[in-house]
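Holo prediction. Input below; ligand is zinc ion.
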Amino acid sequence: MTSPPAAKHIYSPAMGWIRNWRRRRILREPFPEHWLEIIAEHSNFIEQMPADRLAKFRSDLQIFVHEKVFIGAQGFEITEEVRVVIGAAAVRLILYLDLSYFDRVSEILVYPGAYHHPDDRETGILGQVDDWNTVVLSWPAVVAGLRNSRDGHDTATHEFAHVLDRNSGAFNGTPVLRANEDYAEWGRVLSHYYLELRDGKTNNRPLLRDYAATNEAEFFAVATEVFFEKPRVMQRKAPDLYEELQTFFGADPASWGK
Ligand SMILES: [Zn+2]
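Structure of the complex:
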C-alpha cells in the first residue's frame, strides 16, 4: 500500500513561518535611501502619498524587490532602477493592504519593447491560469505610465491590479475584500458601471475607457488606474464607485497631494 501524497496545506503554515523569517532578515538591512531618488526620477507619487504611509511603503518595497525574481526578456537588462521602479509601482497600491496580496507573484518578466497602450498587449499578461505567478511588463510602458501621474493610464498599476484580483483565486474583477458584508455592495456598484459602459448608455466614457467593458477583470484594472490617477474626477463623476475602491484599497487618493 502506497501512502497518499502529502497534502500541501499541511506545510503551508511552515512556509508562512519561513517567509516571515526571511522578511524579518531582509528588513534588518538598512533601507537603501537612494531608491527614493530613483523613484523620484520617474514619478512624484512619494510626495503625493500620505506621510504616515512612507514607513510601510519602504519596508514593502524592500521585501518586494528582494523576493521577486525579475527576468529580462529579449536581452533586456534588469538593473536596480528597473527593480525599484516596478516594485514601487506595485507596493504603492497596497499602502493600506497587506503585502501578502502579492505573495503569489514570484516572477516579473520585463520586455524592452516600445511603449504599447496596455489595451493593446493583453495577451501574455497574466493570461494563463497556469502561469499567473508571472507578471509581464514592458519597461517603456511602465516608464510612460508613471511619468504622467494624472492621465488615468498606468500600465504597472493596471497589471498589479490584475494581481490583486487574481489573488482571490479567480480572475473576475473582485479581489479579496475586507469584510464579507462588502461583497454585495461591491457587486452592485461595479456591475452598474460595467453594464452601463458595455451597453453604451453612459456619459462616463471619458472617465473609464471602453476597454474597461471587456470583462469584469479589465473593468477592475482600468478603474484602479483611474482611481489612483484621476481620483477627484472619479469621486465627482462616480462617487459610489470611488467609495467602493476606497473601501477596498483603504486609500483616499482624492485627498493626496492637496
Ligand atoms: Zn488588463
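The pocket of zinc ion is lined by residues 122, 125, 158, 162, 218, 221 (CB under 6 Å). That is the main takeaway for now.
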